[in-house]
Amino acid sequence: RVSPFVPRAFFWLLALLAASLLWAVSVRLSGREDAALLLLGAAAAVLLQELCRFACFKMLKKADEGLATLSKDGRSPISLRQMAYVSGLSFGVISGVFSITNILADSAGPGTVGIHGDSPYYFITSAFLTMALVLLHTFWGIIFFDACERRRAGGLGLVVGSHLLTSGLTFLNPWYEASLGPIFILTLCTGLWAFSTAGGSFRNVLKCLSCKQEPEGQAMLYSALQVPPE
């Protein structure tokens, strides 16, 4: 059985392949690899990722319509919000794997971090940055799918803009205070936005936290999770 992560992650890999080819052609034609070309390459990679996210949405939308046609009650067994969550999480996981693999390989040695005056927090900050990107892709997937479904250009623009901003902030490294701080603030704000988009509310959080080990509290929890009690 194929994991639902695989086809979604494949779209991110397509974006990575297209960005790599674009970078190789740009370097060959220009004959240079300066900071300006690197910034343009990062922006192009972000736009390609969002384009592939849109292609993933269109494919899943078609699949949702097909499942609804085959079902007895005329409704798809998988909601669009579930698809958005899985798509965003798969984008984030595959992005995190590719961003952290080379760093983990370098951590095995033989060099010593900070021996020449560089920051000794390179590996720990890279781990936190990867965690933030995984969460951001998950949140972006939820917001992006909802904006596409409701035809809200503003939501799409904010997702693309925040993605570009996050990518641009990484160029401030190794000045980690200027990059990690804003990225984590952006992650928190985007998470709250995605929570609201998915239908969450502060009242529901309080209800969930107030559930106690009592029959009524357990019934409320089972109902919220859509799990039948044993």
Automatic annotation (TrEMBL):
Superkingdom of the source species: Eukaryota
Assembly mode: Component of the gamma-secretase complex.
Signal peptide: 1-24
Residues passing through the membrane, by range: 34-52, 83-101, 121-144, 156-176, 182-202
Annotated protein name in UniProt: Gamma-secretase subunit APH-1
Keywords linked to the UniProt accession: Membrane, Notch signaling pathway, Signal, Transmembrane, Transmembrane helix
Main localization category: membrane
Membrane topology: Multi-pass membrane protein
GO CC terms, sorted: gamma-secretase complex
Function: Potential subunit of the gamma-secretase complex, an endoprotease complex that catalyzes the intramembrane cleavage of integral proteins such as Notch receptors.
Species per Swiss-Prot/TrEMBL record: Vidua macroura
Biological process terms in GO annotation: Notch signaling pathway; protein processing
Family: Belongs to the APH-1 family.
Keyword Repeat in record: no
A family per Pfam: Aph-1
